[in-house]
Write a structure and sequence with these properties.
heterodimer, A: mainly alpha, elongated, B: mainly alpha, two-stranded antiparallel sheet
Chain lengths: ~425, ~450
């Protein structure tokens, strides 16, 4: 998935502004209420606020996870669910939101000054979902429930914490899915499904860490904070390493794709353009993140098989070649990709990427729809991309002639929608 | 092993007399079982379990004696894997002894046990740290001992590559053990496991994903190199062999891990720019004219252009760019000489030439290793860094060399395809050499 585009685009999205405004409004309201009532149990408020701010400061990027500050999220959720015996008065909802909001801003501020990437929308999303968790937790937890060592109280508290964490997760997934639909034109159900999958993995881990933090702090006071934070930092370090390895891997695949340009088999940027279009179609059809990744790689690497052919075709237009030659190149490319042992699904897509629909997917359900997407993306790019310069309408017309015979009707329909929305390379 | 096993049995027997069997013992056993089942790999062949986290929790909940008694269960999860009988005895034994070591340390600082923990938090944390250190040290000592007896792996290497990098993370994660104990005592009992296991699983997932991504990248690069080598039947496997060769040389010179890896990547990718050289030139029979030679001379720069975006160490890129420089300054593209040539490029230059000479070419059969070493030594002041040549020759003499497979196409006297790496040819082959051997 092209998470990078999400990142590079300026924050001009309608829902983003709504979210940021809502986050700020809720935060200000909470701040106002707290200021009137006064802060209770201020050492806890300060320590957890500090933790949220630090977590926000050390945020990082992992492609498949939108929330980039797991420590801040865990700390905020932990603060939501504090109880006795360590605390005599548990924090109120307004105070929780105020602490989370102020701390988030305090954490973002140094990043903004240092020129590091930051995103007010994502941080606002956290404040909003923390508010949801706080409301849920307070509603289901009677005031006299505390960690007094009895099994019944402990279990009841754990259940309530789980409910609070789940409500935060579900709200965040709904908001995230809405944003995805808006940005990438993904169908809402597909976007929601992906968000919920992410929530049950990373989201649940952040929630459980928050629960651990809350339970520990309620029992032994602020001693629990370093006990949770040290492992969390270690885990975050492991994630950072993983994220950088993932980035290295992705740039390696992209560089491999550029080899066809250096060898003169394709024009500069051709692979990247094809991949952008394929990703847009995949988003429109609502593929899962794993399939989107394979689709992007397949679109990037669909040309590597040509390296084994004798001489480059002029301008890299493989439409000009005979079908046998193109299928042979696809077969070679697929077998090479297969040999790497980790991109099997990508190899499968590339193998069938030059099969005409009539001989391929129409009769063989085993051929993935991604092959049809790559096929159409390649064709459209060659008609419209740099150098050939047809108008999108004209290109759509000539692709429409091949519908059902050459191209998968579902994919062409999707392409029509995308071009209709104003897609340009 | 027998000694370790006997000691373990004795300790275990004593501990069994000190504890009472009941629900607590059962629950703790389950805890250890879970801890033992959560395994991850530090290195491909050194699995490490997160049972030390569970062990710390047992220290705090029920005291060292229980820890020793239930530590055997940490091994149960491994029973599914087939392993020799000696290991089957040793593995649970050293676990028991390591738990005993940790228990001694925990008791030595008067670590509180059970419900009194909630009133002595600082002392508990201290005792847990000391207990973990004791456990880890005993563990490391016993494993090092057994490795020393087996004599296959050098103990120093083991300590450096496995013990040191895992020590502090283990210590950090043992904090979770303390929390587990606290919430357990605070009323959650065995349910506390669920709270702690999820963060541990996530940590394990991140670590294993790191390895997976690295492996994926390596596989992708190898596959990529193979496509490029399809252009020329004679150079198949060349990049892979150069990578192995510089890897051997790098280990001999004791490079740190990250540079060693960068060196192997550079060896693998050094000819990647050949993808930009037209196939007609690479496969051309006969001597190349000046323009064709220029096309070949471009390949290091092409290679850097291609891999420029990949976040490798800077050394990888400079090595790819300069691997055809010669020590006397007559190489390309920059004509660097002596120590101005990047270190990795000098290493790759040697192995590159060595592999080329020991492989079959269309115009000559492969040379023997000894003959090639003689050529390298003869050229060591003109083409190569003399010290590195000596090091490489020593590596080859002690470790041996697996030359290119012999089922390559038979050399054909009528053909004259020139390998640009081939030292045994005159300037037309790219590497001008004084060592035109009798082919």
């Amino acid at each position: 998935m092209s998470q990078t585009r999400e990142f590079d685009e300026p924050r001009r999205l309608g829902s983003g502004i709504v979210l940021a405004v809502a986050g700020c409004a809720v935060g200000l309201l909470a701040l106002f209420l707290t200021a009137r009532r006064g802060l209770t149990e201020w050492p806890f408020a300060i320590v957890f606020g500090l933790l949220i701010a630090v977590g926000e400061m050390v945020q990082f990027r992992v492609d498949s996870i939108r929330n980039r500050a797991p420590i801040a999220t865990s700390a905020a959720l932990g603060y939501v669910m504090l109880r006795g015996p360590a605390l005599h008065t548990p924090p109120e909802v307004a105070q929780i939101v105020a602490v989370a909001g102020v701390a988030t801003l305090a954490g973002l501020f140094p990043r903004a000054i240092a020129g590091l990437p930051w995103d007010l929308v994502i941080s606002s999303r956290r404040v909003l979902s923390v508010a949801c968790a706080a409301i849920t937790f307070v509603l289901v937890t009677p005031d006299n429930l505390a960690w007094n060592g009895s099994w019944t109280h402990a279990m009841a508290l754990t259940g309530a914490m789980l409910l609070g964490v789940l409500s935060a997760g579900v709200v965040d997934a709904l908001v995230g899915a809405g944003q995805d639909t808006e940005k990438f034109n993904r169908p809402f159900p597909a976007a929601l499904r992906d968000e919920l999958v992410v929530m049950t993995r990373i989201g649940l881990a952040m929630g459980i860490s928050g629960m651990l933090l809350a339970a520990g702090t309620s029992l032994i006071g602020l001693w629990a904070v370093p006990l949770v934070v040290v492992p969390l930092l270690l885990t975050q370090f492991a994630f950072r390493r993983f994220a950088s390895a993932q980035r290295t891997y992705r740039t390696t695949v992209r560089s491999m794709a550029r080899s066809t340009e250096i060898a003169g088999f394709s024009s500069p940027g051709q692979n990247a353009r094809t991949a952008t279009l394929a990703v847009a179609i995949g988003n429109d059809l609502g593929l899962t993140p794993a399939r989107m990744e394979a689709l992007e790689y397949a679109a990037l690497l669909s040309g590597v098989g040509q390296l084994a052919l004798a001489d480059p075709s002029p301008g890299g237009a493989s439409l000009l070649r005979t079908r046998e030659e193109r299928q042979r190149a696809a077969e070679i490319g697929a077998s090479v990709i297969e040999r790497s042992g980790v991109l099997d699904h990508v190899a499968e897509i590339v193998r069938h990427s030059n099969d005409p629909y009539r001989h391929g997917r129409a009769n063989n359900a085993d051929i993935p729809v991604e092959s049809g997407i790559v096929n159409v993306a390649l064709a459209y790019e060659q008609l419209v991309g740099e150098g050939s310069g047809q108008s999108p309408d004209k290109a759509m017309e000539s692709i429409g002639l091949g519908i059902g015979a050459e191209y998968d009707p579902v994919v062409v329909e999707s392409l029509r929608r995308i071009v209709g929305r104003g897609f340009r390379f | 092993v027998a000694l370790v096993a006997t000691c373990a049995l004795v300790v275990l027997a004593v501990s069994l007399t000190k504890i009472s069997f009941g629900f607590t013992a059962l629950a703790l056993s389950v805890l250890m079982l879970v801890g033992g089942a959560l395994r991850f790999r530090v290195l491909p062949n050194h699995p490490a379990a997160l049972d030390s986290v569970a062990l710390v929790a047992v220290f705090v909940i029920a005291g060292p004696w229980y820890a020793v008694a239930v530590s055997v269960f940490g091994y149960v999860a491994q029973l599914r894997q087939p392993s020799p009988i000696v290991k089957r005895i040793f593995n649970p034994s050293y676990r028991v002894l390591a738990a005993g070591g940790g228990g001694l340390a925990y008791a030595a600082v008067d670590g509180p046990v059970g419900s009194e923990v909630l009133h002595h938090i600082p002392l508990t944390v201290l005792a847990a740290v000391v207990g973990t250190v004791g456990h880890q040290l005993t563990n490391a000592l016993l494993v090092s001992l057994i490795l020393w007896l087996e004599g296959q792996v050098r103990v120093i290497d083991f300590v450096r590559s496995v013990i040191l990098p895992t020590f502090f993370p283990m210590l950090g994660y043992s904090a979770l053990g303390v929390l587990l104990a606290v919430t357990w005592i605070g009323g959650l009992n065995i349910v506390a496991c669920l709270l702690v296991v999820v963060p541990l699983i996530v940590a394990r997932w991140a670590m294993s994903q790191y390895q997976a991504e690295r492996a994926a990248q390596a596989a992708a690069m190898r596959a990529f190199i193979q496509i490029i080598e399809t252009k020329d039947l004679y150079t198949r496997g060349h990049s892979e062999r150069v990578s192995i060769g510089v890897g051997m040389l790098g280990r001999h010179l004791r490079l740190p891990d990250d540079r060693q890896q960068a060196l192997e990547h550079a060896g693998l990718l050094h000819d990647v720019g050949k993808v930009g050289v037209p196939t007609s030139i690479i496969r051309k029979p006969g001597k190349l004219d000046d323009t064709e030679m220029d096309a070949i001379r471009l390949h290091p720069a092409r290679g850097v252009e291609l891999i420029g975006n990949i976040p490798f160490l800077e050394e990888v890129k400079s090595a790819v760019l300069h691997h055809h420089e010669k020590y006397d300054g007559t190489g390309y593209p920059a004509g660097l000489s002596g120590d101005h040539i990047p270190y990795f490029a000098r290493m790759i230059g040697i192995v590159d030439a060595f592999d080329s000479l020991t492989s079959t070419r269309s115009y000559r059969p492969a040379r023997g290793v000894d003959e090639t070493i003689a050529i390298l030594i003869q050229d060591k002041t003109t083409h190569f860094d003399p010290e590195l040549v000596e090091a490489f020759v020593e590596v080859i003499r002690t470790k041996g060399w697996t030359a290119a497979a012999v089922n390559q196409p038979v050399p054909d006297g009528s053909l004259q395809i020139i390998d640009h790496d081939d030292l045994s040819l005159g300037s037309s082959g790219g590497a001008s050499g004084s060592a035109a051997g009798p082919a």
